[in-house]
Amino acid sequence: xxxxxxxxxxxxNGISQQPHEVRQASQAEKQVNxxxxxxxxxxxxxxxxxxxxxxxxxxSNTKVHIYERDADEKYTVVAxxxxxxxxxxxxxxxxxxxxxxxxxxxxxxxRESFKLRTVADHTFLLNTDRNVRVFKDGSPLxxxxxxxxxxxxxxxxxxxxxxxxxxxxxxxxxxEVISPYYSLSVNGENVELKVPQSLRTDVxxxxxxxxxxxxxxKTKEEAITASKFAVILANEIERLTDxxxxxxxxxxxxxxxxxxxxxxxxxxxxxxxxxxxTYPNGDVxxxxxxxxxxxxxxxxxxxxxxxxxxxxxTIPAPTAVSKExxxxxxxxNYGATTKVYIDNNEKASYTTSTTDVTTLQSSxxxxxxxxxxxxNLGGGWTVSRQGNVIRxxxxxxSGTFKLRAEDSVGETSVIALLNATIS
Length: 423
Fold this sequence. Notes:
This protein has four domains: 1-47, no CATH class; 63-127, no CATH class; 152-304, no CATH class; 324-418. 8% of the residues lie in helices and 40% in strands. It contains three helices and 27 strands. A hairpin with a 5-residue loop joins β3 and β4. The two termini are 72 Å apart.
């Protein structure tokens, strides 16, 4: 048979155990120290690199969490019993603050009990040994409410500016605009948003929108609005006091977290008819004068922002509990073997008959395995059975163990669960 030559476009689809005639041309039988990439093709596998080293008192039973958000924020978090240490990728220790102490970090098995997850700029640590309680009236855990005083300052929109157009003795027309304005005093300092009175001479009667400046026309987006003045007011409150202010539309929300006073007086003005003027040509013009206009309404409320127990610790101390697991025998198969492992050591094994149907009962298999577990584990354990479910309990509350079960029929007839109980 003559040799056949062909072109292999790339080797980016890894390995395949299919016969040569069936698998794709871009697949191989073996790939040693290679890495398939759609962009780079088949390249050499990247090696492990030692970036840095750091010294710890112990590395036994330690939870390690590594996260790399970007080129500048890459850290290794090392959580141990009662402490957390953070290192950058150069091995430099970072400062870790514990404003509420380290009681929450108390556990006999950090590697199993600590769960860490990084979300955006925050890394959360969960101690699964801690018992969570709900703060509520009547609970054994008494607590104090931590409250803040919040002020809600609501600003009303100003009335529409007054525009008056009248004839002059020279035959032209004069347009005059007087605008209301915001004016508040914060601890004695004026905070205002206003426009100057506008006046212009027209060739004829004007139908254009009113002007708010002598030099140039202004668009409606540049008009005075309550939301614009709210931003100015919030900035001035933070500048003149030690409280925190935020803006929501035309409302300023003030968190009274500081110690300085906050006194606000409303000096805003609107327009009212002052008098009427008659010109020699017979035109009658209404003259308006600024008058007080209440633009500000405020409400005060106390808001619960946190809770603390009377003992000062918001979370109760951990209660030591025994580690438990269950083995659930789902079904039996002829000539099938079921095994139970504790800490990767086989502690029980049972093989059903190839002819006797009574050995296929799940409760019978569980009974055989339970008897072996009781005998092989010894006095430090409690083994009990309820039907086809075996309960395994380590009596030492500070200890832990690994539990695994397998069968010879594709792991379909038995399930093992650690840290689970039955009732």
